[in-house]
Design goal:
The chain has about 200 residues and is α+β, with helices and mostly antiparallel strands. It contains 5 helices and 6 strands. Helix 2 runs antiparallel to helix 3.
Length: about 200
């Protein structure tokens, strides 16, 4: 009789211990699941998706320092495309130049005024010349502020009788400014000047 009670007591203690272990295990699993679920929700909320060519792509956030070289080069490229890509239409010229001047200081405005006074834009319109520019490379020094750059481009002047290809080299400095709709990268080109702008080839149709 006593042996049977002892066996029952032992079995009860085993069941009790097993139950406690199971309860603790379930609590740990539940807590781990809650933490992971919270982290997953938080990560999903911090994700931003953009629509590009009909496909949703995740946008990755990065600090200004991480992207400074990429953004600076794109700023320089955009400025040169606006300033030098022109058609024989006064409204097109004014629109492109206006966009370019948001990205640079008075040094760019001074170059524009000099070209205008010399009749450069009037000649483009009267001779029906289209002008295009392709930025080939940008040398950028981000180790000293403001950031010095030198831009190497190929300029194309398209006439009805010929096409002239020019080598264009400019340089200047970049400083940080506030971002805006007109200046999304938040840079301003300073002390901008043309180092070289010479014909390399002339093609006739």
């Amino acid at each position: 009789m006593f042996q049977q009670l002892k066996n029952i007591d032992t079995a009860f203690r085993h069941i009790k211990a097993f139950s406690i272990v199971m309860i603790l295990t379930c609590m740990l699993i539940s807590g781990f699941s809650l933490v992971k679920s919270y982290q997953a929700v938080e990560a999903a909320q911090n994700r931003i998706y953009i629509l590009a060519n009909g496909q949703a792509m995740e946008a990755v956030a990065a600090g200004r320092k991480d992207n400074i070289r990429v953004e600076a080069k794109d700023h320089i490229k955009t400025f040169h495309q606006y300033f030098f890509t022109l058609d024989p239409d006064d409204k097109v010229i004014q629109t492109n130049i206006s966009k370019a001047l948001y990205l640079a200081d008075g040094s760019a405005k001074a170059q524009y005024d000099n070209l205008k006074e010399s009749g450069y834009y009037s000649n483009l319109i009267s001779a029906n010349i289209s002008q295009e520019v392709r930025v080939d490379s940008v040398d950028l020094n981000v180790n000293a502020y403001p950031y010095f750059f030198r831009c190497y481009s190929t300029q194309k002047l398209i006439r009805s009788t010929s096409t002239a290809i020019r080598s264009l080299v400019t340089q200047g400095y970049l400083r940080n400014v506030s971002r805006s709709d007109n200046n999304p990268h938040g840079f301003l080109i300073e002390r901008w000047e043309t180092i070289s702008n010479r014909d390399t080839t002339i093609n006739h149709p």
